[in-house]
């Protein structure tokens, strides 16, 4: 009687199959959870990198151009450029202190004015960058803009067509 407690219980092949199925189900569930956690981590990393590389775009809703004086070697103009900065650009991205520079290069501008009554140009912006671990400036390149001169005038032009969008250049 005392030795009956030490003897192992009989395990039938049916019991072994049940144990094996339970073990495989648990192992499968663990594998699915591990795979899901790894994929979730990859997706979070992708979202973080996308947010880290995000820089808002700038639009130019209005451009006015007035020719003040024309000589053979010089052209004096006045540009009125309305630049729309997104609300999230100043502060985190762009410092409000520092220089704001706009570059517009144009060759033979008066020939285009006389021939077609309009000028097309591209522009670039350099804004002070206040983010840590970045270059001190943010460079933007803008879509081509078109200025059309008023009928009968070669002195005053306004923006025409689609508003240019300026994108951050890495």
From TrEMBL:
Superkingdom is: Eukaryota
Q: Per UniProt, which keywords does this protein have?
A: Membrane, Transmembrane, Transmembrane helix
Q: Which InterPro entries match?
A: DUF1163
Q: Where are the transmembrane segments?
A: 20-40
Would I find Transmembrane among this entry's keywords?
yes
Which Pfam families does the UniProt entry name for this protein? DUF1163
Protein name (database record): Uncharacterized protein
Q: Which organism is it from?
A: Microthlaspi erraticum
